[in-house]
Amino acid sequence: MKKLSSSQIRQMFLDFFKEKGHSIEPSASLIPEADPTLLWINSGVATMKKYFEGRVVPKNPRLASSQKSIRTNDIENVGKTARHQTLFEMLGNFSVGDYFKKEAINWAWEFMTSPKWMAFDPEKLYVTVYPKDTAAKKLWQQAGVQSDHILEDEGNFWDIGEGPSGPDSEIFYDRGQAFNNVAPDDPENYPGGENERYLEVWNIVFSEFNHKPDGTYAPLPHKNIDTGMGLERLVSVVQQTKTNFETDLFLPIIQATEKLSANKHYGKNRQTDVSFKVIADHARAVTFAISDGALPSNVGRGYVLRRLIRRATVHGKKLGIDQPFLYQLVPVVGKIMASYYPEILKQKAYIAKVIKAEEDRFNHTLNDGLKLLDKQIKAAKKANQNVLTGKTVFMLFDTFGFPFELTKEYAADAGLTVDQAGFNEEMQKQKQRARAARSQNNGMGVQHGLLLDVKVASKFIGWEHLTKKQAKLELIVADDQLVAQVKTGEAQLIFDETPFYAEMGGQVADHGQILDDQSNLVARVTDVQHAPNGQNLHTVKVLAPLVKGQFYQLKVDPTFRRDVSRNHTATHLLDQALRDVLGEHVHQAGSLVEPDYLRFDFTHAGQTTPEQLNQLETIINQKIWAALPINWIITDIDSAKKMGAIAIFKEKYGKQVRVVSIGDYSREFDGGTHAKNTAELGLFKITNETGIGAGVRRIEAVTSKAAFDYLQQREQWLQQIADLIKAPQLSKVVSKVDQLQTELKQSKKQIEQLQAKTAQQQAANIFQEVQTINDITLIAAPVKGADMTQLRQLADKWKQEQLSDVLVLGTVIGGKKVNLIAAVSKAGITKGIKAGDLIKAIAAKVGGGGGGRPDMAQAGGKNPAGLPAALQAASQFLAEK
């Protein structure tokens, strides 16, 4: 076995399969794109679903990747087990209907044992197979595996319910009894058993059956290979560490944490070791998640991120770290992963900023959790109970991020135990809910569809042409069948060449017409999408018979295309301007390009200020007025990156990519249509900006005629306002409104002074009418022409002069509303009267409600006729005391 670093192992795996004709897929974003069934990318095969389902046919059916992934369904086990991580990398090779068992098995054995590659000792490797998969067993023997190193296991069948399934084969490495946690004669001491001696390092799934709804299995039309090998586990074997956490992927993070701790050291204490491991694991996970655009929140993946940060913070406290610290580990993570993920170090300042803000915020939450825990402990003691309930412990865990052990420690300090069984029950309920959700949404469909095997060529010529005079109709789909002709209704068509753009990257598809050789309209194109093999598939409304093999004239609606292209160019200008104004951390999170407007979603922590929006508009309009030329070229991906082209969404690209340049200002990988010059946009105007989720904001904007119409409409509204306020010119509207506001404030002040004067004049009479009920003195009276401010002023006067135990005043406002106020003196409170209770008792009479402190409370209602009854109710309230 060679001595290798984690970076060397990753690269060696990819190099091996590249030699075997595989295309190396870059590690995709942790945030799934166009896949609502997943919260996170949780495996290498998750990024291949579109290929295995048949929605897209890959250019190369042989694929390999090292895919970063997140799984949090067993987060509470992180740090306690040797190899459980939230973030991990999955090495995998995949075949989409190409090679099968023979190649997959031979290559796996070659990679693991060949001196050129990993050079594992064959004597240390064991293989498990499905008992009925005799072919796999034979192929392993032919590859060189000794018969006594091949074990049959009924569990070696990959099946997630309906969909692709099949037998699988696992490779185990024997680390020797010195690494084991069970005795040599333990029944679990075998490859595949529950032990630490034999580590599973690779799983190869032979996907060859379709698990049908009726429970039967039928052969798949295309057999696939899906493999997975955890990089962290493989590194632990190569570097001969007891757990994954002593490898070069984690140990530098642990060592950095030691320096931040209160003289705590890894390897000295089991409990503190758990904390070191949790912090190292979570530091990696949150760093990568934020780099890919996730932000802490209370829902979805944002909640997962928040929980990871909080869990790490709590474990930091266990190590004596009382200040924010997790953000300081971001550069350490970035340095470890720099060879394959250079974006971490590039974004380290932004990632650290997000983490630190969340750590600061959690300090308050953590204190609230501790207060609640103290309250629960006191309540348990008062009730002579010596156990905290499972629901209480789970609430602290789920809401405040308190690990079970932390609550247990605090309870023990107070002489209490915790209901672990009840906690486990609540935890199990949550897992069942999560599994139910995953079973409903997760899973991989079967390869299907009429177009999966359609290989007819179809060329897009729409970059330069909006019309194709002679386009051959190669394929017709109608009523879910391939047909030779269609006479009416809706159909899907593929032509040998087409100027119609297929929807992609947020840009909507072209609309237009299909004409026959006599220039008669035979169909309207309403949508264009990509077929599995990449052809442009036209959805049409058939107006006259269409026949396969015939030639037709295709005409794109030029106005529609022009308006869409202008708005697409505007999104590129906006994308770059956002980075200029807000920072390089901004990532596109989605877009929609329509002919009449554009929508652009982007990641950004915090609100966008009006000044920043004005700055964005200014920058973009300056680029429009500069009449920058818009050009595009086809080049290889490395050359494109050297040019500084930005890859939106971290999409996977082929060897050749299209790069669109807007002067020297913007350069992006792009497959959409654009204006030829920024001057064609005429004008750019933001119409709306808002937050649409945690850390994601949306800008809507218009260009050209739509921007002119937008501004013209607002000018008309402004003119109407000018007419109403009698401003002589539009330029005088602001000063005129300011003048009117000043006059209004002065009028309000005069009214308030008059009301106060009137209320004071009434006070002499009101305060003289004192009732005595059950030895409690009460003043209850209506006040005319007052508002709540005047009522409070009267209450203050009453309080200063100590005129009675209780005061209740009410006033009618505008004939439609009622305001009530109740006040109770110190003597009244001593007699058991509370203003809050009193106001609640009388507010119902005026059709409202209210509340307040024992000495002062107020209420409002919508029934002025009930005011006398409300005042009378105050007397009844005191009479019943």
Care to describe what's here?
The longest helix has 35 residues, at 348-382. The chain is built from 23 helices and 35 strands. The strands form eight sheets. Strands 1, 2, 3, 4, 5, 6, 7, 8 and 9 form a nine-stranded mixed sheet that branches. Strands 13-16-20-19-18-22 form a six-stranded antiparallel barrel. A six-stranded mixed sheet has the order 30-31-32-33-35-34, sandwiched between helices. Strand 6 (157-158) and strand 7 (163-174) form a beta hairpin. With 881 residues, the chain is α+β, with helices and mostly antiparallel strands. It folds into five domains: 6-242, BirA Bifunctional Protein, domain 2 (2-Layer Sandwich), CATH 3.30.930.10; 300-441, no CATH class; 459-556, Elongation Factor Tu (Ef-tu), domain 3, CATH 2.40.30; 571-712, Threonyl-trna Synthetase, Chain A, domain 2 (Threonyl-tRNA Synthetase, Chain A, domain 2), CATH 3.30.980; 765-879, Diaminopimelate Epimerase, Chain A, domain 1 (Roll). Belongs to the class-II aminoacyl-tRNA synthetase family.
